[in-house]
Amino acid sequence: MLEKTGRGDFDAIANHAVATTTAGPTGPSAPVPGQVALSAPAAEGTGDIGTTSRPSPGAPGTVNTDRPDPVDSEGVLR
Predict the structure, then answer these.
(1) Residue 60 has what pLDDT?
(2) ∠77-71-65 over CA atoms, to 5°?
(3) Which of 66, 68, 47 is nearest to 56 (CA)?
(4) What Å distances lie between residue 26 and 13, 30, 77, CA to CA?
(5) How far is 64 from 66, CA to CA, in rounded Å?
(6) Is the pLDDT score of 23 beyond 80?
(7) Cα separation of 19 and 16, whole Å?
(8) For residues 9-47, b (16+ Cβ closer than 10 Å) or e, as one string?
């Protein structure tokens, strides 16, 4: 619809998108041979470990979804 109006400058939109691109989809470029690649700092623990997970109340291997059992009124699942 915008193309039919003739008011969209699609070349300018494409050029702006290319000019503001900051990273490639494949990640950073390869390091120069002989150059040491930078690494991320080591992770440090905060000591604040909060958990909300609790064991499932059902039998092992089952998952309670709190959904009612399906009704097969047409006998499709038989």
Answers:
(1) 76
(2) 100
(3) 66
(4) 23, 11, 46
(5) 6
(6) no
(7) 5
(8) eeeeeeeeeeeeeeeeeeeeeeeeeeeeeeeeeeeeeee
